[in-house]
Amino acid sequence: MHTKALLLASIPAATAAETILGAYIFSRHGDRTTKAYSPTKLTALGAEQVYLSGSWYRSRYIDEKSSTRINGISSDLADLTELAVTAPADNVLQGSAGFFLQGLYPPAGSVNSQKLANGTTIEAPLSGYQYIPVNSATVTSRGSNQAESSAWLQGNSGCPAAVNSSQAYFQSKEYLELLGSTKEFYQSLLPVYESTFPSESATFKNAYSIFDYIHVSTIHNASIPSSNLLTPSNLQTLSDLANIHEFGLGYNASSPIRAVAGSVLASHIVSTLNSSISSSSSQKLNIQFGPYGTFGSFFGLSQLPSVSPDFTAIVDYASSMTFELFTTSSSSSPSENEVSVRFLFANGTASDSNPAKVYPLFGQDKTELPWTTFVSEMNKIALEGGSKEWCDACGEKTGECADYYPAESAGVAAAAKSGSGMSNAVAGVIGAMVTLGVVLGLQALILGVGGLRLTKRRKQDPSEVFQVPAGKTSFSDTSSTQKA
Q1: How far apart are CA 335 and CA 66, in angstroms?
Q2: Mind listing the domains of the chain with CATH numbers?
Q3: Beta pairing partners, 285
């Protein structure tokens, strides 16, 4: 994402009468290895990127000397009642969250020590390292919970309607025109990536996968085949086409369910910030890590592309968006009418040279929204993961959604029972034997006809990674809420 200077963007500084009540940070992971070779791994560069971002947010929200410090938050030792940190069960996203937290709450030395009953003082290992747990994303992030090694946008969304909507993009006029008009361009770069992408795969259909492969190579590989073909102009074109491809898969104004990841995130943001207002809650800072696809989905839903077309681009590694809750009231328990929200975004690692800047949401002409207005606008796009509303919108009636449709579930069960005169026990035994027979038969077919033999697990062949799965139309990226 190449963010241009925007007139409305500025670095926010709290006024003397302003109090920060809480914040919600959503961050992309740091630099990683290519998705062409599974499993994807966080690199040392990626760890540094998110660590530095965490350090910047510490200087803004945690440091005692900061004018934008969250009111009452612990500055030296992390108070786990004040923090909530989540990331999908994925090594890149979980690892990124861990390094971010090292920057947010670095080792505290002797401050992080304990005096025992016998008078001995024990300092925590690693110079007082602070062990802040990163919770695995659960139903609260459903619709955006994807692994970084996956290349299919809606692969783990669990939302059939979102999958169908994204697949519809491959029948759109925009997609089909670009598929044809860019064919020669992708074929011209075949010498660069033909070891991973055969000629038939080197098309706009795999725009993101090709871009990701080249992007990672230019960062980490000192030698690239036919690198003379990777001119600045060609690299920019690869990036531009990937941006178009991914935004098309993640958002469509006429089919909002396509952006289900952004909708689920919106719901979580509102419920979390609401707890920061409540006097009964001590939670002040919520941090969630996820893929770039969630950024794009939320950007589309919140009308940020109308502020700048840059908001239709793939965000850089370690990018973060923040929702800051504040009040100008002197009351220790301000009412909802005395609370406002501002949205900040940093493309890439947040730092003094690249600070998070404020942008207006929902087509508003101001960057500070009254809490009630913010909630009203967010509720228009929000879907709570696993709720009845989510199940209806996604067209999902199985799994955890089955409880919302007892009549249909009962009908399916009754039909299954009436269709068989045998007992459940007998049916179970027969089913197991049939399944075993099919598995053994397929194994024999593969080993015999295919001439294959059993070996130890090997590294995944890149050509396999980009073979479109049955029932899917193409690949794209993920990172935990959509793509990473």
Answers
A1: 25
A2: 17-107+122-146+282-378 (3.40.50.1240), 163-248 (no CATH)
A3: 23, 83
Cβ atoms of 50 and 103 closer than 8 Å: yes
The H or E element spanning position 115 is strand 113-115
Strand 135-136 relative to strand 83-87: parallel, antiparallel, unpaired? parallel
Sign of CA dihedral 345, 347, 348, 349: negative
Task: Give the pLDDT confidence of 173-200 residue by residue, as tens digits.
Answer: 999 999 999 999 999 999 999 999 999 9
Report the pLDDT value the prediction gives residue 467, as an integer from 0 to 100: 35
Q: What percent of the chain has pLDDT over 70?
A: 76
User: Residue 476 above 90 pLDDT?
Assistant: no
- Is residue 87 within 8 Å of residue 145, measured between CB atoms? no
Assess contact for 359 and 9: CB atoms under 8 A: yes
Strand partners, 16: none
400 contacts: CB under 8 Å, gap ≥ 6: 139, 386
Q: Both tokens of residue 299?
A: 């950007």
Question: Does position 259 have pLDDT exceeding 50, yes or no?
Answer: yes
- C-beta atoms surrounding 197 within 10 Å: 23
